[in-house]
Give the backbone structure.
Amino acid sequence: MPDPTDGGEKLCYEFRGSYRGRTYLCYISAATGRQEQLLQVVEEDTGLEAV
């Protein structure tokens, strides 16, 4: 997955889940097992967007 902070890429596992009616994407580093990013999925007029 691209890392927006430094422009590099990291190999990650992607998990999708829901909490209180909202959908989230969680990215876990394949190298360290640590959480890299947690994004909320938002529905827009043009489609789905992760913020």
Q: What stands out?
A: Residues 24 and 39 are 6 Å apart (CA to CA). The radius of gyration is 12 Å. DSSP finds no helices and four strands in the chain.
